[in-house]
Amino acid sequence: MSAFEQAGEWPACGGECAGLIRKLGPDSTPLGAPDGWPRALRSIVDVLLRSSAEMAVYWGPDYIALYNDTHARTIGNKHPGNLGRPAVEYSKELWDELKPGFDQVFHRGACASGRDRHFTLDRRGALEPSYFDYAWSPVFDDDGRIGGVLCITTETTERVRATQALSASEKKARERGEQLQMAQEAGGIGVFSLDIESDTLRVSSELCRIFGMPVHEEYPYDAFGRLCMGQDDPIATRAMRVEGSVPLEAEYPIRRANDGAPRWIHRRCQFVRDGAGKPVLMRGVVQDITDRKQAEATLRQSEARFRVLARAMSNQVWTATADGRLDWASESMSAYSGLSLEDLLGDGWSRIVHPDDLPRAWSWRQALATRTAYENEARLRRHDGTWRWHLSRVQPADESDGLDPSVRWVGINTDIDDQKSAQHRLAQSVAERTRDRDRLWQLSADIMLMADARGRIVAVNPAWQALLGWREAQLLGRPFLRLLHPGDVATAVAELRRLRAGRTNSRLEHSHMENRVRHLDGSYRIVSWTAVPDAQLLHAVGRDVTALRESEARLRQSQKMEAIGQLTGGIAHDFNNLLQGITGPIELMRRRMALGRTEGMERYMDAAAQSARRAASLIQRLLAFSRRQTLDPRPMNVNELIESMDELLRRTLGEQVRLSITPDAATGAAFGDAAQLESAILNLAINARDAMPYGGELRIGTSAVLLDEAQAQRLDLAPGRYCTISVADSGAGMTPEVLAKAFDPFFTTKPIGQGTGLGLSMVYGFAQQSHGLVQIQSQPGVGTTVTLYLPRAPAGERAPRASIACVPGDAALPQGQGEVVLVVEDDPAVRLLVLDVLNEMGYRTLRAEDGTGAIPILQSAARIDLLVSDVGLPGINGRQLAEIARGLRPGLPVVFMTGYAEHVRTRAEFLAPGMQMIAKPFTVEDFASLVQQAMRDRPVE
């Protein structure tokens, strides 16, 4: 334990910056005293203070700077004034460059990195160009939000300067070569053209002479390609990667066909392309440059001799006999070592070689037998006693150099100590950069992985254990897809296939996807991935966005509650009006009956009944919007249904609106509720009429469409065949703001009293509940088109038998034969009504308030000919009670009454044979007719 830890001080480590942070007071920094800093900030400061890498963290929206001693040395005279202060205060000359990058990390959670980035930095009282490798990543606060920016940097100024100097040197060398080429170009020139489609090459006689081929006007292209010396045609290998008519040039050796002589040629050509950009013709020239190449070789040899003489003036030159003993040395060698020439001759030169390098220095003698050039690096002692690295180049002597043939070796010692130091610093820089990259891998809060071509994990960073609980040993070799939620696997597989396919392209493919990754405890976290492939591996970085998605879900819930509030207000407004139309006439009738007055009672009864029917219609529309209405889906011929509505639509639209119906014969049959489809089309027609107050045209059309997987995914539908019904008007159209709310319940642009705003909501709910879709396209002043998608019925499927017979009866109710009906209804008023109706029909009745009370009656020996039950009973629901009744009394007919039940979506799925259903509110006549039908259809004992 350190002394700081024993004293309870923080930071509990040594170093200048740690000491300065301990001294920070409440007013020293906008962050306040260190003991009040967030836990996350204190943790990252602990990490960077103990690191030898250049690290800093910039905390909060003002980017308060905290850093370690290594970073302090990099920023020069800005330290220590900037410690704990906003970055803009000490980095004014850099802030325009730094702030956009910091904002990307802090506000968007992006990571950023770069190599050798140029900055103009004032750290010694004057601006100076500097270069850095950097990596910026977000740091999260105690609440899981981004609290700051972590910066890991490495200064690369010396390396960049060395690279720039090398590039300048190479450029000068290239310029000298180009000037030499221009000065010495000469020789014959051959012309050729290649028809790419036929692979036919037309050549001049001069070109045939250059290649040593018989003179012909045409050749197959590969006849010349075979003459390239052991390589592919260098022009052809690049041809298809070049766009347009950019000229291509190459110099390469050939072997002449007639005598096998090696020659050098220079070839220049360009492509002619057709209108689609496809190359159709290659034309160009060929020149024999063998003489120029030989001249260049001679020049290089001459330059080499010149360099030997030039180095002899400044370097240490010596000669040695065949046995490796020096017999001559230059004055520069004597001046460098401080020894006389006599002391250096023979084996005396070994006195200036570092003892550790002496074995290597003697090893040059191994080249004596083969008379090959030799190079060696060793440290030589200077006259002042310091050791410096030298490169010794030794080669056999040549009479043409004017040297005595008895002298076998010539050597030059070149001082390379500065280069060795630069190489050492570069190696340290590379090693440091590697350590920084590894450190980022270790410290990143994002999970990172590498996977092979089969999707098996080959490397993960420690963040996996922190975020998901998995240790590295548990993940290596494991298929990545097995960690995903089963519902996300298909999407991930498709994206990985796309990445693998794109890996062969010239541009780098990358992917952004989001899926659920399993925690070690079995739970799932939502992770947003960025993935990039290379030739062998897939590299991916994942960020935990679970909290973000949960926040978005809470926002959606808040918006949903706001919508529910709007919906509730709309329902209250309309229902209060309807209830007034019911309660008012009932109160007036009660008053008149108390006074013995019965005249005009029918008027009040009609008004109350009309308001009740309007209330039932409003409920039906609400259920349609919420996709909770009870549907009776069956195959229906869409074209026949619309044609049957022709007269109704024309009466509804009026004379000012022209109606045009254009059915497509291929539309076929849709699967849905015919009555609801009629209501939807009528609602759309009424909306279109109201949008054309001065008249216009209404067009209704049908068609059949086949949605593949991609199209269906865009529409959020299942792939397959659909029937479409489109209703288009030439009216006023909708603004984008109105269009965004078109399906909202109780939203309407009509004046008060001219619409509830539930028409389009009902159409939307009906389409969704029917596994279809409704779309709106509208432009102000142009008109509106509403398209309804419904699943197409399978070929040959027949409509199921109707389950309800809602036939209006006469004033007198149909009579029974004293049969016994068990009534189960939890609402007292409805139960009283049903019992009275059944008694008036001549039936005997048994009653129960719920399923629990009905079971003993069903278990008894009492006669029961029919069960009439509400669906939404407390405890055991009506459908469950019917199953129990059928188990006790097989074949017992059942009539269900329902106001609304969550699981009653389609009659065909809900009802078994011998079961009927009627929706509340119902008329007495409809109920009596349904009971009579159930009694008539019951099995005979």
Please provide a written account of the structure.
The structure is a single chain. With 941 residues, the protein is α+β, with helices and mostly antiparallel strands. It has seven domains: 3-155, Beta-Lactamase (2-Layer Sandwich); 188-288, 2-Layer Sandwich (Beta-Lactamase), CATH 3.30.450.20; 317-421, PAS domain (Beta-Lactamase, 2-Layer Sandwich); 446-544, Beta-Lactamase (2-Layer Sandwich), CATH 3.30.450.20; 556-616; 626-791, 2-Layer Sandwich (Heat Shock Protein 90), CATH 3.30.565; 820-937, 3-Layer(aba) Sandwich (Rossmann fold), CATH 3.40.50.2300. It contains 31 helices and 33 strands. The protein has a six-stranded antiparallel sheet with strand order 8-7-6-11-10-9. A five-stranded antiparallel sheet has the order 2-1-5-4-3. Strands 13-12-16-15-14 form a five-stranded antiparallel sheet. A hairpin with a 5-residue loop joins strand 4 (127-140) and strand 5 (146-155). The N and C termini lie far apart (94 Å). The model is unreliable at 175-187, 309-313, 400-406, 504-508, 751-757, 798-810 and 901-906 (pLDDT under 50).
